Fold this protein.
Amino acid sequence: MQFPPEELETIRLLLRRPTPEDAEAAFEAYASDPKITHYLAWKAHTSPAQTREFFYQIVDAWDLRMGHRMWLIERKEDRAVLGAIGCTVTFHRVEVGFALGSRFWGQGYMPEALERVCEAAFEDPRIFRVQALCDEENAQSARVMQKVGMTCEGRLRRYGHHPNRSDTPRDCFIYSLVRGD
Protein backbone atom coordinates (compact mmCIF):
# COMPACT_ATOMS: atom_id res chain seq x y z
CA MET A 1 0.00 0.00 0.00
CA GLN A 2 1.17 3.52 -0.74
CA PHE A 3 0.60 5.75 2.26
CA PRO A 4 -1.62 7.65 2.78
CA PRO A 5 -4.75 5.98 1.42
CA GLU A 6 -7.88 8.07 0.96
CA GLU A 7 -9.79 6.01 3.54
CA LEU A 8 -9.00 4.07 6.68
CA GLU A 9 -11.35 2.16 8.96
CA THR A 10 -11.38 1.09 12.58
CA ILE A 11 -14.07 -0.76 14.49
CA ARG A 12 -15.97 2.45 15.26
CA LEU A 13 -14.55 5.01 12.86
CA LEU A 14 -14.17 5.87 9.21
CA LEU A 15 -11.26 8.16 8.36
CA ARG A 16 -11.97 9.66 4.97
CA ARG A 17 -10.85 12.38 2.63
CA PRO A 18 -13.06 15.45 3.18
CA THR A 19 -15.02 17.32 0.56
CA PRO A 20 -16.06 20.98 0.63
CA GLU A 21 -19.59 19.76 1.36
CA ASP A 22 -18.33 18.49 4.75
CA ALA A 23 -17.43 22.01 5.87
CA GLU A 24 -20.55 22.77 7.88
CA ALA A 25 -20.44 19.47 9.81
CA ALA A 26 -16.73 19.92 10.48
CA PHE A 27 -17.24 23.52 11.56
CA GLU A 28 -19.90 22.45 14.06
CA ALA A 29 -18.03 19.39 15.33
CA TYR A 30 -14.53 20.75 15.85
CA ALA A 31 -13.24 23.59 13.66
CA SER A 32 -15.13 26.29 15.59
CA ASP A 33 -14.31 24.81 19.02
CA PRO A 34 -11.89 27.10 20.90
CA LYS A 35 -11.23 24.34 23.46
CA ILE A 36 -9.48 22.24 20.84
CA THR A 37 -7.54 25.01 19.12
CA HIS A 38 -6.05 26.18 22.41
CA TYR A 39 -2.78 24.35 21.67
CA LEU A 40 -2.97 24.17 17.88
CA ALA A 41 -1.26 26.19 15.16
CA TRP A 42 -4.57 27.67 13.95
CA LYS A 43 -7.38 29.66 15.47
CA ALA A 44 -10.96 28.44 15.73
CA HIS A 45 -12.85 29.05 12.51
CA THR A 46 -15.48 31.76 12.60
CA SER A 47 -17.70 30.44 9.79
CA PRO A 48 -18.38 27.31 7.74
CA ALA A 49 -17.07 29.27 4.74
CA GLN A 50 -13.64 29.46 6.40
CA THR A 51 -13.68 25.70 6.95
CA ARG A 52 -14.78 25.18 3.34
CA GLU A 53 -11.82 27.27 2.07
CA PHE A 54 -9.45 25.13 4.11
CA PHE A 55 -11.06 21.97 2.71
CA TYR A 56 -10.43 23.21 -0.84
CA GLN A 57 -6.71 23.26 0.04
CA ILE A 58 -6.96 19.75 1.47
CA VAL A 59 -8.74 18.49 -1.65
CA ASP A 60 -5.89 19.94 -3.75
CA ALA A 61 -3.30 18.20 -1.55
CA TRP A 62 -5.07 14.87 -2.04
CA ASP A 63 -5.44 15.41 -5.79
CA LEU A 64 -1.76 16.33 -6.14
CA ARG A 65 -0.69 13.58 -3.66
CA MET A 66 1.57 16.03 -1.86
CA GLY A 67 1.58 18.32 1.14
CA HIS A 68 -0.60 17.91 4.21
CA ARG A 69 -3.39 15.41 3.71
CA MET A 70 -6.22 15.21 6.20
CA TRP A 71 -8.95 12.72 6.95
CA LEU A 72 -12.23 13.56 8.63
CA ILE A 73 -12.95 11.28 11.56
CA GLU A 74 -16.49 10.01 11.18
CA ARG A 75 -18.31 7.73 13.62
CA LYS A 76 -19.67 4.76 11.68
CA GLU A 77 -22.83 4.22 13.72
CA ASP A 78 -24.37 7.61 12.92
CA ARG A 79 -21.98 9.19 10.36
CA ALA A 80 -21.26 12.05 12.80
CA VAL A 81 -18.10 14.05 12.09
CA LEU A 82 -15.99 14.03 15.27
CA GLY A 83 -12.73 15.66 14.23
CA ALA A 84 -9.79 15.34 11.88
CA ILE A 85 -6.41 13.70 11.68
CA GLY A 86 -3.83 14.57 9.06
CA CYS A 87 -0.34 13.76 7.94
CA THR A 88 2.56 15.04 5.94
CA VAL A 89 4.87 12.47 4.35
CA THR A 90 8.52 13.44 3.95
CA PHE A 91 10.66 10.69 2.42
CA HIS A 92 10.71 7.90 5.05
CA ARG A 93 8.71 9.64 7.78
CA VAL A 94 5.19 10.79 8.49
CA GLU A 95 4.24 13.69 10.74
CA VAL A 96 0.75 13.47 12.19
CA GLY A 97 -1.54 16.10 13.73
CA PHE A 98 -5.06 15.77 15.07
CA ALA A 99 -8.08 17.63 16.42
CA LEU A 100 -11.20 16.22 18.06
CA GLY A 101 -14.33 18.12 19.05
CA SER A 102 -14.31 18.60 22.83
CA ARG A 103 -17.69 16.92 23.29
CA PHE A 104 -16.08 13.69 22.02
CA TRP A 105 -13.10 13.73 24.40
CA GLY A 106 -12.59 10.84 26.80
CA GLN A 107 -14.27 8.21 24.60
CA GLY A 108 -11.13 6.73 23.03
CA TYR A 109 -11.80 8.04 19.52
CA MET A 110 -8.48 9.79 18.95
CA PRO A 111 -6.22 6.96 20.12
CA GLU A 112 -8.27 4.63 17.88
CA ALA A 113 -7.81 6.92 14.87
CA LEU A 114 -4.11 7.61 15.53
CA GLU A 115 -3.33 3.93 16.00
CA ARG A 116 -4.90 3.13 12.63
CA VAL A 117 -2.95 5.89 10.90
CA CYS A 118 0.30 4.57 12.41
CA GLU A 119 -0.53 0.99 11.35
CA ALA A 120 -1.31 2.14 7.82
CA ALA A 121 1.91 4.12 7.61
CA PHE A 122 3.97 1.05 8.47
CA GLU A 123 2.12 -1.01 5.85
CA ASP A 124 4.05 1.11 3.34
CA PRO A 125 7.61 -0.32 3.25
CA ARG A 126 9.03 3.16 2.57
CA ILE A 127 7.88 4.51 5.96
CA PHE A 128 10.17 4.01 8.96
CA ARG A 129 8.99 6.70 11.34
CA VAL A 130 5.71 8.31 12.47
CA GLN A 131 6.07 11.42 14.60
CA ALA A 132 3.85 14.02 16.23
CA LEU A 133 4.34 17.19 18.24
CA CYS A 134 2.40 18.72 21.08
CA ASP A 135 2.68 21.90 23.09
CA GLU A 136 4.55 21.36 26.34
CA GLU A 137 1.33 21.98 28.31
CA ASN A 138 -0.96 19.82 26.17
CA ALA A 139 -1.20 16.78 28.45
CA GLN A 140 -4.27 15.41 26.63
CA SER A 141 -2.49 15.13 23.29
CA ALA A 142 0.60 13.72 24.96
CA ARG A 143 -1.58 11.04 26.56
CA VAL A 144 -3.14 10.12 23.19
CA MET A 145 0.33 9.58 21.73
CA GLN A 146 1.44 7.55 24.72
CA LYS A 147 -1.66 5.34 24.46
CA VAL A 148 -0.66 4.25 20.96
CA GLY A 149 2.89 3.47 22.04
CA MET A 150 4.66 6.60 20.88
CA THR A 151 7.82 7.51 22.79
CA CYS A 152 8.63 11.04 23.91
CA GLU A 153 12.01 11.83 22.38
CA GLY A 154 12.44 15.21 23.98
CA ARG A 155 11.62 18.88 24.07
CA LEU A 156 12.00 21.14 21.05
CA ARG A 157 12.66 24.59 22.43
CA ARG A 158 10.71 27.52 20.95
CA TYR A 159 9.51 25.22 18.17
CA GLY A 160 5.74 25.49 17.85
CA HIS A 161 3.62 28.45 16.85
CA HIS A 162 0.40 28.29 18.87
CA PRO A 163 -1.34 31.65 18.35
CA ASN A 164 -4.05 30.87 20.88
CA ARG A 165 -1.43 30.56 23.62
CA SER A 166 1.30 33.05 22.72
CA ASP A 167 2.60 35.40 20.05
CA THR A 168 6.04 33.80 20.38
CA PRO A 169 7.07 30.21 19.61
CA ARG A 170 6.50 27.70 22.41
CA ASP A 171 8.30 24.58 23.54
CA CYS A 172 6.93 21.31 22.17
CA PHE A 173 7.45 17.64 22.90
CA ILE A 174 8.15 15.31 20.00
CA TYR A 175 6.79 11.77 20.09
CA SER A 176 7.49 8.95 17.65
CA LEU A 177 6.95 5.38 16.65
CA VAL A 178 9.75 3.80 14.67
CA ARG A 179 9.53 0.68 12.52
CA GLY A 180 10.78 -2.21 14.61
CA ASP A 181 9.85 -0.64 17.98
User: Anything to note?
Assistant: The CA atoms of residues 42 and 163 lie 7 Å apart. Residues 48-64 form the longest helix (17 residues). Helices lie at 23-31, 34-37, 48-64, 109-123, 139-147.
